[in-house]
Protein backbone atom coordinates (compact mmCIF):
# COMPACT_ATOMS: atom_id res chain seq x y z
CA UNK A 1 0.00 0.00 0.00
CA UNK A 2 1.15 3.53 -0.87
CA UNK A 3 0.19 6.36 1.49
CA UNK A 4 -0.62 9.93 0.46
CA UNK A 5 -0.58 12.51 3.25
CA UNK A 6 -2.58 15.61 2.39
CA UNK A 7 -0.87 18.80 3.49
CA UNK A 8 -2.69 21.86 2.26
CA UNK A 9 -5.08 24.58 3.21
CA UNK A 10 -4.51 27.94 4.78
CA UNK A 11 -4.14 28.72 8.44
CA UNK A 12 -7.19 30.72 9.46
CA UNK A 13 -8.46 28.67 12.43
CA UNK A 14 -5.20 28.99 14.38
CA UNK A 15 -4.52 32.59 13.47
CA UNK A 16 -2.29 34.49 14.18
CA UNK A 17 0.35 31.73 14.43
CA UNK A 18 -0.88 30.10 11.25
CA UNK A 19 -1.23 31.90 7.94
CA UNK A 20 -1.48 31.16 4.21
CA UNK A 21 1.98 29.60 4.12
CA UNK A 22 2.27 28.20 7.66
CA UNK A 23 -0.77 25.98 8.23
CA UNK A 24 -1.63 24.41 11.58
CA UNK A 25 0.40 21.24 10.97
CA UNK A 26 3.65 23.26 11.05
CA UNK A 27 3.17 24.97 14.42
CA UNK A 28 5.70 23.71 16.97
CA UNK A 29 3.46 23.69 20.04
CA UNK A 30 3.58 20.01 21.08
CA UNK A 31 6.29 18.42 23.20
CA UNK A 32 7.88 15.12 22.19
CA UNK A 33 9.21 12.43 24.50
CA UNK A 34 12.49 14.35 24.87
CA UNK A 35 10.76 17.55 25.98
CA UNK A 36 11.47 19.27 22.64
CA UNK A 37 8.84 21.25 20.77
CA UNK A 38 7.56 19.61 17.60
CA UNK A 39 4.85 20.23 15.03
CA UNK A 40 1.94 17.96 14.10
CA UNK A 41 3.58 17.00 10.81
CA UNK A 42 6.82 16.07 12.59
CA UNK A 43 4.86 13.98 15.10
CA UNK A 44 2.92 12.14 12.36
CA UNK A 45 6.03 11.42 10.25
CA UNK A 46 7.78 10.01 13.34
CA UNK A 47 4.75 7.78 13.98
CA UNK A 48 4.79 6.51 10.39
CA UNK A 49 8.42 5.53 10.87
CA UNK A 50 7.52 3.67 14.07
CA UNK A 51 5.10 1.38 12.16
CA UNK A 52 7.27 1.11 8.99
CA UNK A 53 4.98 3.16 6.78
CA UNK A 54 7.31 6.07 6.00
CA UNK A 55 9.06 4.27 3.12
CA UNK A 56 5.80 4.02 1.18
CA UNK A 57 4.46 7.49 2.09
CA UNK A 58 4.26 10.65 -0.03
CA UNK A 59 3.25 14.16 1.02
CA UNK A 60 0.89 15.97 -1.35
CA UNK A 61 1.23 19.71 -0.90
CA UNK A 62 1.18 23.09 -2.62
CA UNK A 63 4.24 24.97 -3.84
CA UNK A 64 3.95 27.44 -0.97
CA UNK A 65 4.49 24.70 1.64
CA UNK A 66 7.45 22.87 0.08
CA UNK A 67 10.13 24.83 1.94
CA UNK A 68 8.39 24.42 5.28
CA UNK A 69 7.99 20.64 4.84
CA UNK A 70 11.67 20.30 3.89
CA UNK A 71 12.62 22.49 6.84
CA UNK A 72 10.76 20.28 9.31
CA UNK A 73 11.05 16.79 7.75
CA UNK A 74 14.22 17.07 5.69
CA UNK A 75 14.81 17.11 1.96
CA UNK A 76 14.41 13.36 1.43
CA UNK A 77 10.65 13.15 2.04
CA UNK A 78 8.95 12.46 -1.33
CA UNK A 79 6.63 15.30 -2.33
CA UNK A 80 3.80 15.54 -4.84
CA UNK A 81 3.48 19.26 -5.55
CA UNK A 82 0.30 21.02 -6.66
CA UNK A 83 0.86 23.97 -9.02
CA UNK A 84 -1.88 25.78 -7.06
CA UNK A 85 -4.41 25.01 -4.31
CA UNK A 86 -7.61 23.49 -5.67
CA UNK A 87 -9.16 21.42 -2.81
CA UNK A 88 -8.90 17.71 -2.05
CA UNK A 89 -10.26 16.11 -5.22
CA UNK A 90 -7.71 17.78 -7.53
CA UNK A 91 -4.93 17.08 -5.00
CA UNK A 92 -5.78 13.36 -4.79
CA UNK A 93 -6.25 13.10 -8.56
CA UNK A 94 -2.80 14.62 -9.09
CA UNK A 95 -1.29 12.24 -6.52
CA UNK A 96 -2.89 9.27 -8.27
CA UNK A 97 -1.39 10.26 -11.63
CA UNK A 98 2.01 10.75 -9.98
CA UNK A 99 1.94 7.27 -8.44
CA UNK A 100 0.76 5.77 -11.74
CA UNK A 101 3.04 7.53 -14.23
CA UNK A 102 6.06 8.60 -12.15
CA UNK A 103 6.37 6.22 -9.18
CA UNK A 104 5.56 3.03 -11.11
CA UNK A 105 2.62 1.90 -8.94
CA UNK A 106 0.44 -0.79 -10.53
CA UNK A 107 -3.24 -0.17 -11.17
CA UNK A 108 -3.99 -2.86 -8.58
CA UNK A 109 -2.02 -1.04 -5.88
CA UNK A 110 -4.00 0.11 -2.84
CA UNK A 111 -3.60 3.83 -2.13
CA UNK A 112 -4.31 5.13 1.35
CA UNK A 113 -5.07 8.82 1.89
CA UNK A 114 -5.01 10.63 5.23
CA UNK A 115 -4.55 14.13 6.63
CA UNK A 116 -1.03 15.07 7.62
CA UNK A 117 -2.06 16.25 11.09
CA UNK A 118 -4.25 13.82 13.11
CA UNK A 119 -3.45 13.71 16.84
CA UNK A 120 -3.41 9.97 17.51
CA UNK A 121 -1.33 7.17 19.01
CA UNK A 122 0.77 4.77 16.93
CA UNK A 123 -1.92 2.08 16.89
CA UNK A 124 -4.01 4.39 14.68
CA UNK A 125 -1.48 3.91 11.88
CA UNK A 126 -1.42 0.18 12.49
CA UNK A 127 -5.16 0.29 11.82
CA UNK A 128 -4.53 2.28 8.64
CA UNK A 129 -2.45 -0.67 7.42
CA UNK A 130 -5.52 -2.91 7.71
CA UNK A 131 -7.39 -0.87 5.08
CA UNK A 132 -5.46 -2.71 2.39
CA UNK A 133 -6.77 -6.13 3.47
CA UNK A 134 -10.30 -4.79 3.92
CA UNK A 135 -10.31 -3.41 0.39
CA UNK A 136 -8.70 -6.45 -1.20
CA UNK A 137 -11.09 -8.92 0.49
CA UNK A 138 -14.27 -7.04 -0.34
CA UNK A 139 -15.89 -5.87 -3.56
CA UNK A 140 -15.88 -2.27 -2.32
CA UNK A 141 -14.46 0.62 -4.32
CA UNK A 142 -13.58 2.61 -1.21
CA UNK A 143 -12.57 1.63 2.32
CA UNK A 144 -12.87 4.24 5.07
CA UNK A 145 -11.40 4.35 8.55
CA UNK A 146 -14.03 5.45 11.07
CA UNK A 147 -13.47 6.38 14.71
CA UNK A 148 -15.86 4.92 17.28
CA UNK A 149 -17.39 8.04 18.94
CA UNK A 150 -16.75 8.68 22.62
CA UNK A 151 -19.45 11.37 22.89
CA UNK A 152 -22.20 12.83 20.64
CA UNK A 153 -20.11 15.46 18.87
CA UNK A 154 -21.69 18.00 16.55
CA UNK A 155 -18.25 18.99 15.13
CA UNK A 156 -17.58 15.88 13.03
CA UNK A 157 -19.14 14.10 10.09
CA UNK A 158 -20.55 10.57 10.65
CA UNK A 159 -20.35 7.34 8.68
CA UNK A 160 -23.61 5.41 9.07
CA UNK A 161 -23.36 1.64 8.44
CA UNK A 162 -26.08 -0.57 7.03
CA UNK A 163 -27.99 -2.50 9.69
CA UNK A 164 -28.01 -5.41 9.84
CA UNK A 165 -24.65 -6.19 8.24
CA UNK A 166 -24.32 -9.03 5.75
CA UNK A 167 -22.58 -12.08 7.26
CA UNK A 168 -18.91 -12.44 6.28
CA UNK A 169 -18.55 -8.82 5.18
CA UNK A 170 -15.02 -7.45 5.50
CA UNK A 171 -15.54 -4.14 7.29
CA UNK A 172 -18.91 -2.46 7.75
CA UNK A 173 -20.97 -1.81 4.64
CA UNK A 174 -21.72 1.94 4.54
CA UNK A 175 -25.28 3.15 4.15
CA UNK A 176 -24.81 6.93 4.03
CA UNK A 177 -23.12 9.93 5.65
CA UNK A 178 -24.26 12.72 7.95
CA UNK A 179 -22.30 15.96 8.19
CA UNK A 180 -22.10 17.71 11.59
CA UNK A 181 -25.45 16.72 13.15
CA UNK A 182 -26.91 18.29 16.27
CA UNK A 183 -25.88 16.68 19.55
CA UNK A 184 -29.36 15.14 19.85
CA UNK A 185 -29.10 13.61 16.37
CA UNK A 186 -25.54 12.48 17.13
CA UNK A 187 -26.82 10.50 20.11
CA UNK A 188 -29.19 8.64 17.77
CA UNK A 189 -26.38 8.01 15.29
CA UNK A 190 -24.23 6.50 18.00
CA UNK A 191 -27.02 4.01 18.71
CA UNK A 192 -26.84 3.06 15.02
CA UNK A 193 -23.11 2.27 15.46
CA UNK A 194 -22.16 5.31 13.37
CA UNK A 195 -18.48 6.31 13.23
CA UNK A 196 -16.74 9.66 13.13
CA UNK A 197 -15.37 10.33 9.65
CA UNK A 198 -11.67 11.11 10.23
CA UNK A 199 -10.83 11.66 6.57
CA UNK A 200 -8.84 8.44 6.10
CA UNK A 201 -9.69 6.15 3.17
CA UNK A 202 -8.21 3.78 0.62
CA UNK A 203 -8.89 2.78 -2.99
CA UNK A 204 -7.24 0.76 -5.72
CA UNK A 205 -5.32 3.03 -8.03
CA UNK A 206 -7.33 2.01 -11.07
CA UNK A 207 -10.54 3.33 -9.47
CA UNK A 208 -9.30 6.93 -9.61
CA UNK A 209 -7.38 6.54 -12.87
CA UNK A 210 -10.54 5.22 -14.57
CA UNK A 211 -12.52 8.10 -13.08
CA UNK A 212 -10.12 10.60 -14.62
CA UNK A 213 -10.43 8.85 -17.99
CA UNK A 214 -14.23 9.13 -17.73
CA UNK A 215 -13.89 12.86 -17.03
CA UNK A 216 -11.59 13.35 -20.00
CA UNK A 217 -8.67 14.36 -17.79
CA UNK A 218 -5.01 13.36 -18.28
CA UNK A 219 -3.75 10.33 -16.35
CA UNK A 220 -0.07 11.28 -16.62
CA UNK A 221 1.30 13.53 -13.90
CA UNK A 222 3.19 16.01 -16.07
CA UNK A 223 0.21 16.54 -18.37
CA UNK A 224 -2.28 16.89 -15.51
CA UNK A 225 0.07 19.41 -13.88
CA UNK A 226 -0.12 21.53 -17.04
CA UNK A 227 -3.92 21.29 -17.09
CA UNK A 228 -4.40 21.53 -13.33
CA UNK A 229 -6.38 24.73 -13.63
CA UNK A 230 -9.11 22.79 -15.49
CA UNK A 231 -9.98 20.77 -12.40
CA UNK A 232 -12.87 22.10 -10.35
CA UNK A 233 -12.16 23.30 -6.83
CA UNK A 234 -14.14 20.57 -5.13
CA UNK A 235 -13.67 18.11 -2.29
CA UNK A 236 -12.96 14.41 -2.74
CA UNK A 237 -15.94 13.69 -0.48
CA UNK A 238 -18.31 15.54 -2.81
CA UNK A 239 -16.79 14.45 -6.12
CA UNK A 240 -16.05 10.79 -5.30
CA UNK A 241 -17.15 9.48 -1.90
CA UNK A 242 -20.79 10.63 -2.08
CA UNK A 243 -21.10 9.16 -5.61
CA UNK A 244 -19.50 5.78 -4.83
CA UNK A 245 -21.98 2.91 -4.33
CA UNK A 246 -19.78 0.27 -2.69
CA UNK A 247 -18.05 1.58 0.44
CA UNK A 248 -16.88 -0.27 3.53
CA UNK A 249 -15.72 1.21 6.84
CA UNK A 250 -13.18 -0.14 9.29
CA UNK A 251 -13.94 0.85 12.92
CA UNK A 252 -11.13 2.24 15.07
CA UNK A 253 -11.64 2.23 18.83
CA UNK A 254 -8.60 4.23 19.92
CA UNK A 255 -8.13 7.93 20.63
CA UNK A 256 -8.30 10.46 17.80
CA UNK A 257 -8.42 14.24 17.78
CA UNK A 258 -8.48 17.00 15.21
CA UNK A 259 -6.37 19.78 16.73
CA UNK A 260 -7.80 22.34 14.35
CA UNK A 261 -8.89 25.04 16.79
CA UNK A 262 -7.26 26.78 19.72
CA UNK A 263 -9.53 25.11 22.28
CA UNK A 264 -8.71 21.56 21.07
CA UNK A 265 -5.02 22.29 20.49
CA UNK A 266 -4.44 23.69 23.98
CA UNK A 267 -5.97 20.54 25.49
CA UNK A 268 -2.94 18.60 24.24
CA UNK A 269 -0.26 21.16 25.05
CA UNK A 270 1.92 20.07 27.94
CA UNK A 271 2.48 23.64 29.13
CA UNK A 272 0.27 26.69 29.60
CA UNK A 273 2.92 29.05 28.29
CA UNK A 274 5.18 29.15 25.24
CA UNK A 275 7.38 32.21 24.87
CA UNK A 276 7.84 35.30 27.03
CA UNK A 277 5.13 36.19 29.52
CA UNK A 278 3.51 35.67 32.89
CA UNK A 279 0.25 34.04 33.93
CA UNK A 280 -1.19 34.86 37.35
CA UNK A 281 -2.36 31.99 39.56
CA UNK A 282 -6.04 32.87 39.05
CA UNK A 283 -5.80 32.59 35.24
CA UNK A 284 -6.82 28.94 35.29
CA UNK A 285 -7.03 27.00 32.01
CA UNK A 286 -5.53 29.96 30.14
CA UNK A 287 -2.70 29.62 27.63
CA UNK A 288 -0.11 32.07 26.33
CA UNK A 289 1.54 31.26 23.00
CA UNK A 290 3.94 34.10 22.20
CA UNK A 291 6.37 34.20 19.25
CA UNK A 292 7.55 37.76 19.84
CA UNK A 293 10.36 39.00 22.07
CA UNK A 294 8.05 41.22 24.13
CA UNK A 295 6.50 39.78 27.32
CA UNK A 296 2.76 39.14 27.56
CA UNK A 297 1.10 39.30 30.99
CA UNK A 298 -2.34 37.84 31.76
CA UNK A 299 -4.14 38.73 35.00
CA UNK A 300 -7.30 37.05 36.25
CA UNK A 301 -8.61 35.81 32.88
CA UNK A 302 -9.78 32.19 32.89
CA UNK A 303 -10.40 29.68 30.07
CA UNK A 304 -8.72 31.86 27.46
CA UNK A 305 -6.05 31.84 24.77
CA UNK A 306 -3.63 34.69 24.11
CA UNK A 307 -1.75 34.00 20.88
CA UNK A 308 0.88 36.46 19.66
CA UNK A 309 2.91 36.35 16.43
CA UNK A 310 4.29 38.78 13.84
CA UNK A 311 0.95 38.35 12.01
CA UNK A 312 -1.16 39.69 14.87
CA UNK A 313 -2.55 39.19 18.37
CA UNK A 314 -5.56 37.07 19.36
CA UNK A 315 -7.28 37.25 22.75
CA UNK A 316 -10.23 34.86 23.01
CA UNK A 317 -12.12 32.69 25.43
CA UNK A 318 -11.68 29.06 24.47
CA UNK A 319 -15.33 28.40 23.67
CA UNK A 320 -15.35 31.23 21.09
CA UNK A 321 -11.94 30.46 19.59
CA UNK A 322 -13.24 28.36 16.63
CA UNK A 323 -14.95 31.52 15.29
CA UNK A 324 -11.67 33.32 14.59
CA UNK A 325 -11.68 32.01 11.01
CA UNK A 326 -14.91 33.88 10.22
CA UNK A 327 -13.82 37.02 12.05
CA UNK A 328 -10.61 37.45 10.02
CA UNK A 329 -11.84 36.07 6.67
CA UNK A 330 -11.50 39.50 5.02
CA UNK A 331 -8.06 40.17 6.48
CA UNK A 332 -5.52 40.32 3.64
CA UNK A 333 -1.83 40.63 4.49
CA UNK A 334 1.44 39.00 3.56
CA UNK A 335 2.73 36.29 5.94
CA UNK A 336 5.00 37.96 8.50
CA UNK A 337 6.85 34.77 9.46
CA UNK A 338 7.84 31.80 7.31
CA UNK A 339 10.03 28.75 7.65
CA UNK A 340 12.11 27.83 4.62
CA UNK A 341 14.22 24.79 3.68
CA UNK A 342 17.30 26.81 4.71
CA UNK A 343 15.94 28.46 7.85
CA UNK A 344 13.36 31.18 8.55
CA UNK A 345 12.54 34.85 8.20
CA UNK A 346 10.44 37.35 10.15
CA UNK A 347 9.17 40.66 8.77
CA UNK A 348 10.12 43.46 11.16
CA UNK A 349 8.75 46.47 9.29
CA UNK A 350 7.06 47.35 5.99
CA UNK A 351 6.53 50.95 4.83
CA UNK A 352 4.90 52.20 1.62
CA UNK A 353 5.60 55.79 0.61
CA UNK A 354 3.25 58.07 -1.36
CA UNK A 355 5.52 58.15 -4.42
CA UNK A 356 5.28 54.36 -4.73
CA UNK A 357 8.54 53.26 -3.14
CA UNK A 358 8.53 50.60 -0.42
CA UNK A 359 10.98 49.54 2.28
CA UNK A 360 10.71 46.07 3.84
CA UNK A 361 12.91 44.93 6.73
CA UNK A 362 13.39 41.26 7.62
CA UNK A 363 15.36 39.31 10.19
CA UNK A 364 16.64 36.14 8.49
CA UNK A 365 18.11 32.98 10.01
CA UNK A 366 20.08 30.47 7.94
CA UNK A 367 20.92 27.14 9.59
CA UNK A 368 24.50 25.87 9.66
CA UNK A 369 25.33 24.06 6.41
CA UNK A 370 22.25 25.42 4.59
CA UNK A 371 22.18 28.03 1.84
CA UNK A 372 19.85 30.50 0.17
CA UNK A 373 19.63 29.87 -3.58
CA UNK A 374 21.60 31.84 -6.17
CA UNK A 375 18.97 34.32 -7.35
CA UNK A 376 18.21 37.82 -8.53
CA UNK A 377 15.42 40.39 -8.15
CA UNK A 378 14.28 42.81 -10.84
CA UNK A 379 12.32 45.27 -8.68
CA UNK A 380 14.37 45.71 -5.54
CA UNK A 381 17.82 46.24 -4.10
CA UNK A 382 18.87 44.74 -0.77
CA UNK A 383 21.28 45.56 2.03
CA UNK A 384 22.30 42.69 4.34
CA UNK A 385 23.83 43.30 7.75
CA UNK A 386 25.28 40.14 9.30
CA UNK A 387 24.28 39.95 12.97
CA UNK A 388 25.58 36.53 13.96
CA UNK A 389 27.76 33.75 12.57
CA UNK A 390 29.96 33.23 9.56
CA UNK A 391 29.22 32.34 5.96
CA UNK A 392 30.10 32.44 2.29
CA UNK A 393 28.48 35.18 0.19
CA UNK A 394 28.15 34.87 -3.58
CA UNK A 395 27.59 38.00 -5.69
CA UNK A 396 27.71 38.15 -9.49
CA UNK A 397 30.06 35.20 -9.89
CA UNK A 398 32.35 35.93 -6.94
CA UNK A 399 32.36 34.22 -3.51
CA UNK A 400 33.82 35.73 -0.35
CA UNK A 401 33.87 35.00 3.37
CA UNK A 402 31.52 37.08 5.58
CA UNK A 403 31.07 37.40 9.34
CA UNK A 404 29.09 39.29 11.98
CA UNK A 405 29.34 43.04 11.45
CA UNK A 406 29.71 42.89 7.67
CA UNK A 407 27.34 44.96 5.52
CA UNK A 408 26.58 43.54 2.05
CA UNK A 409 25.12 45.47 -0.88
CA UNK A 410 22.89 43.63 -3.40
CA UNK A 411 21.96 45.99 -6.27
CA UNK A 412 18.87 45.42 -8.44
CA UNK A 413 19.45 42.58 -10.91
CA UNK A 414 22.48 41.15 -9.09
CA UNK A 415 22.84 37.42 -8.76
CA UNK A 416 23.43 36.52 -5.12
CA UNK A 417 23.25 33.77 -2.49
CA UNK A 418 24.69 32.88 0.90
CA UNK A 419 25.76 29.74 2.78
CA UNK A 420 25.92 29.51 6.57
CA UNK A 421 29.19 28.04 7.89
CA UNK A 422 27.70 28.44 11.39
CA UNK A 423 24.13 29.39 12.32
CA UNK A 424 23.78 32.75 10.60
CA UNK A 425 21.45 35.67 11.25
CA UNK A 426 21.16 38.89 9.26
CA UNK A 427 18.96 41.94 8.78
CA UNK A 428 17.76 42.42 5.21
CA UNK A 429 16.46 45.80 4.08
CA UNK A 430 14.67 45.71 0.74
CA UNK A 431 14.02 48.90 -1.26
CA UNK A 432 11.97 48.98 -4.43
CA UNK A 433 8.69 49.61 -6.16
CA UNK A 434 6.97 46.25 -5.57
CA UNK A 435 8.30 44.13 -2.72
CA UNK A 436 6.77 40.69 -3.22
CA UNK A 437 8.10 37.16 -2.73
CA UNK A 438 7.35 36.46 -6.40
CA UNK A 439 10.06 38.88 -7.57
CA UNK A 440 12.72 36.20 -7.73
CA UNK A 441 14.57 34.32 -10.46
CA UNK A 442 16.51 31.31 -9.18
CA UNK A 443 19.55 29.94 -10.99
CA UNK A 444 21.01 27.33 -8.63
CA UNK A 445 19.55 25.75 -5.48
CA UNK A 446 22.56 23.91 -4.04
CA UNK A 447 25.84 25.44 -2.92
CA UNK A 448 27.81 22.89 -4.96
CA UNK A 449 26.14 24.29 -8.09
CA UNK A 450 26.91 27.85 -6.98
CA UNK A 451 30.59 27.05 -6.36
CA UNK A 452 30.79 25.34 -9.76
CA UNK A 453 29.69 28.59 -11.46
CA UNK A 454 31.43 31.13 -9.22
CA UNK A 455 35.03 31.85 -8.23
CA UNK A 456 36.42 32.65 -4.80
CA UNK A 457 37.59 36.23 -4.44
CA UNK A 458 41.34 36.77 -4.27
CA UNK A 459 42.54 38.07 -0.92
From TrEMBL:
Q: Where is the Nucleotidyl transferase domain?
A: 4-271
Q: Does the keyword rRNA processing apply?
A: no
Q: Which UniProt keywords apply?
A: Nucleotidyltransferase, Transferase
Q: What broad taxonomic lineage does this protein's source fall under?
A: Bacteria, Bacillati, Bacillota, Bacilli, Bacillales
Q: Is Transferase one of the keywords?
A: yes
Question: Record's Pfam families?
Answer: MannoseP_isomer, NTP_transferase
**Which GO terms fall under biological process for this protein?**
GDP-mannose biosynthetic process; polysaccharide metabolic process
**Entry GO MF terms:** mannose-1-phosphate guanylyltransferase (GTP) activity
What organism does the record attribute this protein to? Answer: Guptibacillus hwajinpoensis
Query: What is the recorded name of this protein?
Result: Mannose-1-phosphate guanylyltransferase
Amino acid sequence: MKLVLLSGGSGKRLWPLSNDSRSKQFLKVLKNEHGEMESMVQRVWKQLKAVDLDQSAFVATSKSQVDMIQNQLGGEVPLIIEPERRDTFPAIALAATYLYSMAGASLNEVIGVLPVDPYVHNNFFKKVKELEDVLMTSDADLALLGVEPTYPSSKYGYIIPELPQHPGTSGLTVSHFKEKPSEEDAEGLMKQKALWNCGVFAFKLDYIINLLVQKGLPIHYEELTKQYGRLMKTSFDYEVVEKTKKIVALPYAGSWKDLGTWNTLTEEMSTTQIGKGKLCDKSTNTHIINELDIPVTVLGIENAVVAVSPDGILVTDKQSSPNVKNLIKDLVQRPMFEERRWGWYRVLDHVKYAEGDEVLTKRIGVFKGKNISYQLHTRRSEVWTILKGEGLFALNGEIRFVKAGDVLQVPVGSKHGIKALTDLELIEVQTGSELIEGDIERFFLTWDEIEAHCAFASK
